[in-house]
Queue: 4 jobs
Job 1
Amino acid sequence: MNQVTEPYTFIARLLHWLVAALILFNGLLALTDEWWPEHYLRTVIDFHKSVGISVLLLVLLRILWRLTHTPPPLPQHLQSWELRLAAIGHVLLYVLILSVPFSGWLHDSAWKDASTHPMTLFGLVSWPRIGFILHLDPPTKEYLHHLFGTVHTALNYILYAVLLIHIIAVYKHERLDNVSVLSRMGFK
């Protein structure tokens, strides 16, 4: 590499990779839900919800960290259009990473059996449903459950598309520009 860039703080890097791993893992869980035997399905779904809420909490922590810790400067070789795309891409990633678990939480809160099946994070900590949705009339809840499920799925696909673009951009900088942007988020 010709140019090595300054890394993010250890906490920022840890949160980045933890959130990334949990997002990929949770996507895999969602895509394989039909493969699980019926008697495991509720456990898999509850685990999916726990991982999703964990992502939501971790990304909120990551945003707080970023607001209180100045990120390292972007590589000097970037053109102005690349800087704009990087800014847009990062904002979009944060919005999607927040929106996906929140839409899942809305979807779960509108589930017809939500009031009789308490939600717990990893079976350890009680987690509330969104109250105003939980107490709607059954037809409205059924409609919202379907709507929020559709939104949740669509947002996931958009998130994975943006993540793919993010990975392609990293590859471009690493291999074509010969600038180690991956070192900004790597562990030594």
Job 2
Amino acid sequence: MKNILNAILNIINRSVRTSTYHQSSYNNRINAVGSALEEYMKDAFSDTFDEVDINTKNRIYNDNFSWLGNQNNPPDFILKGGDAIEVKKINSLNADLALNSSYPKAKLYSDDPMITVGCRDCEVWDVKDLIYCIGSFKDTTLRSLWMIYGSIYAADKSVYERIKNTINNGINSIPDVEFGETKELGRVNRVDPLGITNLRIRGMWSIQNPRKVFDYIVDDNKDAEFELVSIIPTTKYLDFDSADRKLIEGLDISGFSITDTLVRDPNNPANMIESKLIKYLI
């Protein structure tokens, strides 16, 4: 079963950062299945950076992923029997992440109304750990990549749903209007006397860049040619196959480090969560 440690090792060992996915020969395929960073992360997790035959790559994807997502619903892909991956491309190193209608997720739940039936039925599951992969390119070269578990980045879903539900209930309490069924915050039908105007009320969520959120444990590497930063809760890290842990712990390469650290609990900053900080700088 593939995991985040495999992806980190593939990125470091393959030294692939210049994205061929931006090339014109790939444009139609990329527009159809997602952004260049999404394709890059699929190759990182499946170790297909060097695979040029699309049919062979698709077969490897089929072996490693149970869901390959779409552009409108989370997540972007799911490792077969493993974690869900949400990929976010940002335009500058410190830009906040635009999440649009989906609030930040500590974990992915199968009863989430924002996911599709295909995602819900891709395998037997109730809850999955979620990894945010946040990347920034300089031209066509990957400049920064952060890989953060949602459980140390976002609060429990009840925190966000309380706000969402309060807004939704307030909208629905407006008298003398016709409301429609929606997964958004609200929908008002036939607002005008002719009954020809509808109002959609959507949430536009965003979350602060992890470079800011975790600046108390990670130095600003803005002068580095490339940075890869991953923070993994220690309990999660210890669940990975021992062979995968030994490989990354035995990695002896300039700019690489793996250390123990403590991060603030998103649900109670007075608590600290034991974590592994993995960095690779060029």
Job 3
Amino acid sequence: MSSNPVDPNSLPAQSIPDGGSIQPDELLPPVEPPNAGFLLQLFVVPAVIVLFVVMVWLLVTTLATRGQQDPQHIVTALRSSNQSRWQKAKELADMLRIEARYPELKQNTDLATQLAQLLDEEIDAAGEDDNSVELRYFLCRVLGEFRVDNGLAVLLKAASKDVERDVRREAINALAVLAHSFHSMDPPGRLEHPDLVATLIQLANEQDDLIRSQVAYALGVFTLGDDSDKSLVAELEKLADDLYPDARFNAALALARQGNLRAVEAVVEMFDRDATTISVSREPSPALQTYKRNTILRNALDAAQALLEKNPDIRLPELTDAIRRFVETASDWKDLGEIPEPLLAKARELLQDHADAE
């Protein structure tokens, strides 16, 4: 049997107002302001709990990060022959790439030294199986990412003596990346080693076309400063006449950035459709051929702009004529796809700027 929660007949006579009815709000408890203890339980205690959880998480993350960056831990994993080697290699590559999260890693001289020692051992072992070659390739790449030169000597060794061409090429590229990092420091730094210049000159005169092409790119980085070694500039000038197109084009771009007029002939060639077709013909797929063609044209425009800006008092009609022919015959380059409009726009802009200057 149901009944009302409050029976008016059961109330004391003095509690019933005149008229015999009770208002609903008279049945509620009185409203009182919350006291300090209630507020403490409602807000402060949960906040303290959340703060504690965050601090524990930060502590765990910090400890884990320190473990990830421990040189001995990293090198031990890379020395192993199981799958953990490549997992650690991926982690190390990711940490070097995310510099904001691991700001001290590229300055870790202990880690760079131990990685260099491992690479040195692997070069001497001269393993030709895929795992050994991939490890040397990887070590060359990561040593180029550091901001310390502890890996310089072994990179020079890998570039000149490794049994695998791809490892040698990656070592040359790593030298260029390392040199660029030092050049970008404030104040600019400079890589120094008693065998550096001699090794680069030796590589610039290799029989292997791909090695010469790679070192032409690297020499462009090593000769960025006004105080660069003149013998390296001389090697670049020789490479600008190299029989291999990619070596010529890389050398021309490097010389053009210095305003060196020895680059003009090769830069003009980079705007020639037939010459560019020969250069891209080695690529295994049409997509890669198109990408390389566009890269050559982009580099040609950058080189032409540098030559025109750094030599404002010298007329270079062969260069401007080559740019003009490229713009006028762009529709003939469709065998590898349309020329990207930004490249054509830059070419037109160069012609306009040069015309205005004259």
Job 4
Amino acid sequence: MLDEDQLSENEDEDLLFEHHRIVCDPGQGLVRLDKFLTDRLPNVTRTKIQKGIDEGFVSVNDKPIKSNYRVHPNDVIIISFPEPPRDTEVIPENIPLNIVYEDDSLLVINKPAGMVVHPAYQNWTGTLVNALAFHFQNLPQMPGNEGKPGLVHRIDKDTSGLLVIAKTEKAMTALARQFFDHTIERTYNALVWGVPDPPEATINVHVGRSPKDRRITVAFPEGNSGRHAVTHYKVLKDLRYVSLVECKLETGRTHQIRAHMKYIGHPLFNDSMYGGDQIVKGTVFSKYRQFVENCFKLIPRQALHAKTLGFIHPVTREFMQFDSELPEDFLAVLSKWENYVQFN
């Protein structure tokens, strides 16, 4: 990925290391190179990409290129830097963990919002995996999942809530099987714009990466693309302009709840990636706009919390279920809306 530090250091060195190789599809349309890469590389701005192209870190078909070049079918785009790519070594870091439960096979953690689950671009340190590497030795890794010890699932950086971590190979295999079979019980609490109608229903709509922006998951109601995805929702509190909704996952696709709620017209409150950081429901009065802005400041993230988690223990075979309280920022914004609706 294009990192500002990589773009500014060691620019005079001749040796470059390949970080990304993208082969365009045979049916690829003629799109500007900088726009094409912006859509393909998550969390990288178009400005950074243009700077990287201008400084010679991007080539097409082994030739230097300009930002306004239009990509063609079967083009081979290579992004290189003076430093070699990061390997899968995880640096242990003494980061406190909120451990809800632990035994010899597994542990359940309540992850705070803002913590990335595993190292990746722009977040090589300070992640849950870095913390796990410090507190636990020799956690297992799933095949093809090197650099992510103990993980059998994840939640988004700005989503808070419960995660189960495997401490043994047996536990990892058993838990991964339950996730694959969709027998893990997971419920989330979300604050969404508006009040879904009906107040309780099932969203059975395929979701997948947007062809326009790979960072975003979109719905494919025709079912001709994406993957099967099912979310059961129920309105817990009707607050006129927003509502507290319980979402039970039957499948666990990337950004599933965020994409499904956006699809039915009720994006998560302050979810900037899915349009929830705009006023979707309410009045045009400046007093209301100021109130919403104050709410955004209280919870500067999507209002989503992984509240409960249930699974069969890999060793005892007993069903275990865990529940977590809503975090302070979520409770604060919920209380603010409750008061607003009561007195307005």
